[in-house]
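Worked problem 6 (solution included).
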Amino acid sequence: MAGVVGPLFDGVAGVFSAAGGSLETPIAQYEAGEDGMRITAGYAATGTIPDGVEAVELPRVPTAVCGVHLGAMDRIGESWQAVHAEIIARGYTPSGPCREVYLRAESEDQPDWVTELQQPVTR
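Solution. The predicted structure is:
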């Protein structure tokens, strides 16, 4: 997945940088469907959205189970497994696309990354 998501973020960042815009927190949303995985990748942004990217407002979610992944993305699957185990333990069911909010994602080799995992749920 990283081979797809990284270039998506790079493309959005390139458009914003060329337009003189500023980027805030990176966010990805993943939605599984019959045709595969739909990935929305971008940044929390304010101000004018430049040509070449689309503004997407992610809907509020009334209830979600959240977790925090520390470190490199090659181990994030383990953190997602823990989130889903907690969903089952609390009697919830996933109910929408999951999100990753990259709270700290600056270093190239990723040992200090902090990623919030968000899974909308219902009873």
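Discussion: Helices lie at 2-18, 76-89.
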